[in-house]
Specification:
Strand content: 35-45%
Shape: globular
Mean pLDDT: 93
Number of helices: 2
Structural class: alpha+beta
Largest sheet: 4 strands, mixed
Order of helices and strands: EHEHEE
CATH architecture: 2-Layer Sandwich
Distance between the termini: 20 Å
Strand order of the largest sheet: 1-2-4-3
Helix content: 25-40%
CATH topology: Translation Initiation Factor IF3
Low-confidence stretches: none
CATH class: Alpha Beta
Number of strands: 4
Amino acid sequence: MDALKVSSKSHPKAVAGALAAVLREHGRVEVQAVGAGAVNQAIKAIAICRGYVAPNGINLVVTPAFAEIEIEGEERTAIRLIVEPR
């Protein structure tokens, strides 16, 4: 499963819906964000997603990590957020 990529222009509610769908299907999801704006949108989406899955008795836990990725031939550092049920 590839990481769900979030940008600073991503809509948190739309990302939250995608997160909830992947969580229900695979049991975990990885979110990747590059830059402060993208990380902000990703965190908002995870908070909204928590509200979507909480009625089903699912409590989420997030593990942050760094990832080295290549964008347009340039090495960049991304934040990878691993979202799993507790």
